[in-house]
């Protein structure tokens, strides 16, 4: 007998029983309040044609959808080990929470990772540790063409726009940046009042939509840019070419989300659909990109101007280096976003299969800039799953001067990796515009946690540097970091990423072309 026939007989029997027993006890007729809606659901699913499982199992089929909806939570809270969890493990999330709350940051009993596993990485410590007197690690950003260089922390908040994040999240991030003296990237959504209110240093990111500095046609507006960039909180400007999670992919701001508030920030018409195209209209090739960089440098009265990209075609970056060398024009910094970088929402194909991973991209860019004699002019920023001091040291060993972290700072705000960023229903009020949700994020408390995470991560970085004998950032070399590549064989980062010709290459030397 089919499930549907069994359910039909069961309902018929239930109706008969209710009617029979209600003759002696009329109160039992209230059971029809439960039976009738269930019966209607049964009938509806018997005739609908979109969901086979509900047509075949008109009531029990809902259990499947229920369990599927809570699958991430069940896995995270009951089945996931400390080293499991994607994109960040429980161990990684926990260290951020501990540092943000300024509580115990140690782990008991010993290593949980498998040191014999292929891919395991470690750093060679020194017999005689170094001593670093500094409590912070900072880098001056500004080439010889820059008039207002910026003294930046080696760890800064990566690009996340207001609109993707709530107003309370943006304020907490910026307040934390002010408390511990580091920079907050605005994201390409423009500079909102919530970026300004707390007074933290800003890196203004300009994307293909030119939000905050666009004319009615959606093209770059010099006057609006000049008015905006003069704000003293804006320390650097970053031209976004692409991002790691969705390189070469544009975006759409639906009319429903384009409120008067968002429209005023982005300099667009409210209640209209606004596109962020895949490419820029202000430039079309390497040379015109360099001219645009120089234009922004002049309009900003010499503030550092940089570009952000996820590396793809190596020949295109090679051509950019050649144009920089030939024309003596260059950005003050290049932010390299690895393919493992995060986003609120992106197509699966772009997230999983496009773009170069951060280590490969970083070493290639460092190599090319060295080869063309441009490395001293341009600072490199690395972005892509930067969480701990070890992550920072690895990136620095491969050529980075500074690092960005987005999801690390989101964890410091209280992100639980619910993977609801694209739903607008973020349970902790970070990636949402629902007032009932973002009101739960207390700015005065969370900005302190953001600052704590930054300060404690820098402290941990310094402690590891001292243990390894690195007296300064310049002493961090790729030949001191190792990876197990097969059973019984370990290679240094120098051998893996630089030494492809048999020569011993280390960070800071002139490198041969790939």
- Give the spatial strand order of the biggest sheet: 4-13-12-11-10-7-6-5
Q: Which value, in Å, is the CA radius of gyration?
A: 27 Å
Uncertain residue segments: 501-514
Q: Give the number of DSSP strands.
A: 15
| Alpha-beta classification | alpha/beta
State the separation between the terminal residues, measured CA to CA: 69 Å
Q: Please state the overall shape, judged from the principal axes of the Cα atoms.
A: globular
Task: Give the oligomeric state of the chains in this entry, treating copies of one chain as homo and distinct chains as hetero.
Answer: single chain
Report strand %.
5-15%
Query: Major sheet, described briefly?
Result: 8 strands, parallel
- Counted by DSSP, the helix tally is 19
Helix content: 25-40%
Rounded mean pLDDT score: 88
């Amino acid at each position: 007998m089919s499930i549907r026939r069994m359910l039909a007989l069961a309902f018929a029997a239930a109706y008969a029983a209710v009617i029979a027993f209600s003759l002696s006890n009329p109160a039992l007729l209230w059971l029809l309040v439960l039976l009738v809606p269930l019966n209607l659901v049964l009938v509806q699913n018997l005739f609908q044609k979109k969901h086979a499982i509900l047509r075949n199992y008109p009531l029990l089929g809902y259990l499947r959808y229920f369990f599927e909806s809570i699958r991430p939570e069940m896995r995270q809270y009951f089945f996931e080990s400390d080293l499991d969890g994607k994109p960040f493990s429980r161990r990684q999330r926990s260290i951020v929470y501990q540092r943000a709350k300024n509580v115990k940051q140690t782990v008991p009993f010993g290593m949980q990772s498998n040191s014999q596993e292929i891919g395991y990485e470690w750093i060679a410590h020194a017999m005689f540790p170094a001593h670093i007197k500094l409590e912070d690690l900072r880098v001056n950003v500004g080439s010889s063409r820059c008039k207002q260089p910026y003294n930046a922390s080696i760890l800064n908040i990566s690009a996340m726009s207001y609109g993707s994040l709530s107003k309370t999240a943006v304020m907490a991030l910026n307040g934390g940046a002010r408390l511990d003296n580091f920079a907050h990237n605005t994201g390409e959504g423009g500079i909102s009042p919530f970026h300004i209110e707390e007074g933290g240093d800003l890196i203004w990111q300009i994307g293909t939509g030119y939000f905050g500095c666009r004319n009615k046609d959606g093209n770059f507006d010099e006057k609006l840019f000049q008015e905006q960039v003069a704000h003293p909180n804006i320390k650097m400007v970053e031209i976004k070419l692409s991002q790691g999670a969705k390189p070469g992919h544009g975006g759409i701001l639906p009319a429903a989300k384009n409120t008067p508030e968002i429209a005023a920030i982005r300099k667009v018409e409210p209640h209209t659909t606004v596109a962020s195209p895949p490419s820029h209209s202000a430039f079309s090739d390497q040379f015109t990109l360099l001219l645009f960089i120089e234009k922004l440098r002049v309009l900003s009265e010499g503030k550092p101007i940089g570009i952000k990209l996820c590396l793809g075609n190596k020949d295109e970056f090679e051509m950019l280096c050649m144009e920089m060398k030939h024309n003596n024009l260059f950005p003050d910094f290049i932010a390299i976003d690895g393919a493992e970088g995060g986003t609120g929402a992106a197509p699966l194909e772009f997230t999983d299969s496009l773009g170069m991973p951060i280590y490969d991209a970083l070493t290639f860019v460092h190599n090319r800039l060295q080869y063309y004699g441009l490395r001293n002019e341009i600072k490199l920023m690395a972005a892509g799953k930067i969480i701990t001091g070890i992550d920072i040291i690895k990136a620095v060993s491969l050529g980075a001067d500074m690092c960005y972290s987005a999801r690390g700072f989101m964890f410091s705000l209280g992100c639980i990796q619910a993977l609801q960023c694209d739903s607008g229903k973020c349970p902790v009020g970070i990636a949402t515009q629902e007032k009932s949700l973002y009101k739960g994020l207390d700015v005065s408390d969370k900005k302190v946690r953001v600052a704590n995470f930054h300060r404690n991560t820098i402290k941990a970085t310094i402690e590891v540097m001292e243990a390894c004998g690195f007296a300064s950032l310049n002493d961090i070399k790729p030949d001191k970091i190792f990876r197990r590549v097969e059973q019984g064989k370990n290679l240094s980062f120098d051998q893996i990423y630089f030494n492809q010709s048999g020569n011993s290459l280390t960070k800071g030397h002139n490198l041969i072309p790939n």
